[in-house]
Amino acid sequence: MLLKIEDEKQRMQRLFKATVFTVLCCSLIPTSEMAQARAGCDQNELKTRVNTTDRLIAFRTALSSIHADSKQLAAFIVFSGDAHNSEYPTKHDKRREFISGFEGSAGTAVITRTQAALWTDGRYFLEAEEALDCNWVLMRQGEPGTPSIPGWLNSVLNASDYVGVDESLITHYTFTLIQGSLLSMSNKLELKAINSSLNPVDTVWRDQQPAQPKEIINALDVKFAGISWQGKLANLRANITSLGAGAFVVTSLDEIAWLFNLRGSDVEYTPFFLGYAVVEPSSVRLYILDKNTRLNATPTDDQTETKLHVHLNTGVDGACSSADCVQVLEYNLVDLEAYLRALAETTIVLVTYHANYAVYQAVKNNVTVRSSPIEIDKAIKNPTERVGMKNAYRRDSAELVKFLAFLENEVKSGRDWTEVSAAQRLDNQRKTLQYNRGVSFPTIAGFGSNGAIIHYMPLPSTNKQITTDSFFLLDSGGQYLDGTTDVTRTMHYGNPSDYEKECYTRVLMSSINLAMIKWPQGQRGGVLDTVARNPLWQVGLDYRHGTGHGIGAYLSVHEGPGGINVNSNSDPALKPYEFYSDEPGYYEDGKFGIRLETVVTAVPYQTKYEFGRSGYLQFEAVTLVPFELDLVDFTLMNKEQMEWLNNYNSQIKREILPLLGNDELAIKWLNDRTQLINLRQIFGLNSGSTISCSWGILILSLIVVVKFLQSSFCRT
After folding, report:
1. Could you tell me which residues come within 8 angstroms of residue 487 by beta carbon, excluding any fewer than 6 positions away?
2. Radius of gyration of the chain (CA)
3. For 622-630, what is the mean pLDDT?
4. What is the pLDDT of residues 36-56, one digit of tens each?
5. Most Cβ neighbours (<10 Å): which of 43, 107, 209, 557?
6. Looking at the structure, do residues 178 and 241 belong to the same domain, yes or no?
7. What is the domain range of residue 105?
């Protein structure tokens, strides 16, 4: 289903207002005060901080040599992504990480001639504070008093100054919004798109910058993909025509991999390869690095024997002259821009809001901008993908059960286990599973206070021993040919306080609330998000992240376009057979973190009544790993939540127990956590259940009979 362009524009504008580019109405905290407020900045004492002094000196030297319209740049914006707006850029493209020392996946750096600031969201406040040295000001995005990027630049630069950005590393829509915001302010600053060859980060990094990856690209067999690439291409061409366009430029790496049933390993944690595609009614062009070598290389995946040029029905040199094959060309933005400029002279070209500014500029004279006609087709899993995802989650869940049983036994026996050693052990166990192709993101293993860092990644410098004194949060996942997994469980191997148990229970209640909900088709994720948070809100608790994100099928662990979070009221509605995470949490800085993540899929639900004939949906659990019953205060839960938990535990025993083989430790661990809750014992005879009601009627009837017999006996 395609979105109207008006809806997409409104969505982007709302997102824009909700993020770093908003000019907040509150008074701004001076940059100098923000810098002074950072802990340890007198001596830069935190050992986790990266010294960026020399890098910033070299950066500013490079910046001084860049001119736009014969005028020197006064500042430069460094985004986290690559030319494809990827969540996980290649090592070659981690420019913001290099220049700032902050490794989190979300963040934007802004560097002037004298100052440096980094914006990030609530997931990364603690991590950024510990990573950024005292050359940097940490801008806590969304917090009161934190300026937007345009607002801050307006306060520190002079009137009419130029701000630079790499034209290939910013989306055209974001460029337009920032430019408009800067020009609307008192200093009338201007944003200038700079050719990527002049990027000052690359100038500084050049000698050590990793090369662009050129790993082998493998075909994904239709037994995993479900639909041939020819079938997907035919459907896409029909959609392009219906939108009134004559060509579509595909820039997102996950869409390229999905469209052509190809998977690579250029990008860490995701099976993607760097590329662009241009789809036309009678031709399709695919741009990749080192095309001749890769077209003819022997596959590295043992599940395919088909070389790339055979899979794409093209020549060994990438030549193609029909609509039934793919013309393969060398990955080069300059060549792509030249082709697009010529194409736009005669054809309306469709690009998405995620396309980079350089691509947009090449077709700006004859362009239509919309959400991608691929993204929703990709998000709605076909029958083969649905079966594959469930199979992948069964295997993955069983292996996680084995690991958690092993780790608990080790820790309670007093053996030494750390965050790093636990994460490495789990990663290695996953590698042994059928169809495994690595992890889907860096394993998050946080003990105690490290668990409060929402996207914490254990490092030797921050590594903690896992003991019985606090919570241990474990968020992990795998990439499989038949699916992508993501699961979080939180354990406590000692004696938690009543408060800690309440926190765990309320997070579990939030997770169950989302898992139980039934809703009419057409609803967006924001409605569901509030239902999940309610058990935490009731006592004044909350979490600084969304409740759920989409998940790909052997693609990205974070997949659009839908989501379940407070901002997703502007996203497309949730649709049948999309897969989402269900992951509420609670975090206390410096103490502990709790997160429970279960992947679910939306499926049709038959209601008793039918208002509006829209049809209803419900979630079906796909992750099958039990929760920690010893951490649950059942007095806080209602009967429906407990019934859901009983049904979930029964499903786990039914589907996962047979996969544990002779692992007695894992079998006992699973059985202990899937015991059924005795609802009659907790709620008594007036619970409202059919069984309780029936027994009540029977007992009442027996009392009446006994009284009658006693009365009759006495009369005789």
Report:
1. 396, 397, 400, 475, 476, 477, 597, 598, 599, 623, 625
2. 28
3. 99
4. 456 667 555 566 788 999 999
5. 107
6. no
7. 5-205
**542, part of any domain:** yes
> Do 653 and 593 share a structural domain?
yes
Query: Do 146 and 123 belong together in one domain?
Result: yes
**Residue 507, C-beta contacts closer than 8 angstroms, at least 6 positions apart:** 490, 536, 584, 585, 586, 594, 595, 596
What are the tens digits of pLDDT across the range 526-549? 999 999 999 999 999 999 999 999
Same domain, 649 and 672: yes
- Residues 88 and 410: their CA atoms lie apart, in Å, by 34
Asked whether the bond before 561 is cis by omega within 30 degrees of 0, the reply is: yes
Could you tell me if 224 and 347 lie in one domain? yes
Please give the Cα distance from 313 to 284 (Å, whole number): 12
Please indicate whether residue 680 or residue 604 has the higher confidence score (pLDDT): 604
Judge whether 670 lies within some domain. yes
* Token pair of 157 as six digits: 């630069």
Other Cβ atoms closer than 10 A to 333? 18
- Taking alpha carbons only, the member of 140, 143, 153 closest to residue 181 is 153
CATH of the domain at 223: 3.40.350.10
Please state, in angstroms and as integers, the Cα–Cα distance from residue 425 to each residue in 357, 418, 421, 422, 477, following that order: 43, 11, 6, 5, 13
> Is there a single domain that holds both residue 361 and residue 453?
no
Domain end marker among 205, 239, 265: 205
Structure tokens given for 445: 């293993």
CB atoms within 10 A of CB 609: 5
- What CATH number is attached to the domain comprising 399? 3.90.230.10
Which tens digits make up the pLDDT trace of 267-304?
Answer: 999 999 999 999 999 999 999 999 999 999 999 999 99
Express the helix, strand and coil content of the chain in percent, nearest 5 each: 40, 20, 40
Q: Do 52 and 200 have their domain in common?
A: yes
Report the alpha-carbon distance of residue 188 to residue 568 in Å, rounded. Answer: 32
Last residue in a domain, options 179, 205, 231: 205
**Structural domain tally of the chain?**
4
Cα–Cα distance for residue pair 649/543, rounded to 1 Å: 26
The three-state secondary structure class of 77 is strand
Are 290 and 407 members of one domain? Answer: no
More confident residue, 570 or 27: 570
Euclidean distance between CA atoms 123 and 105, whole angstroms: 10
Domain assignment of residue 210, yes or no: no
Q: Considering the domain boundaries, does residue 378 fall inside one?
A: no
Q: At what angle do helices 5-18 and 172-183 cross, to 10 degrees?
A: 60
Residues 6+ positions from 40 with CB-CB distance below 8 Å: 46, 49, 134
Give the span between the Cα atoms of 588 and 559, in whole angstroms.
28
Query: Per the confidence metrics, is the pTM higher than 0.85?
Result: yes
What are the tokens at 706? 């006994």
What is the spatial distance between Cα 222 and Cα 382, in angstroms, rounded to a whole number?
12
HSE-up (13 A, CA, CB side) for residue 180 = 11
Structure tokens belonging to residue 687: 């619970």
Sheet with 275-280, side-by-side order of all strands = 327-330, 283-288, 275-280, 247-250, 349-352, 367-370
d(CA 154, CA 183): 10
The two tokens of residue 578 are 């999309």
Tokens of 344: 């736009």
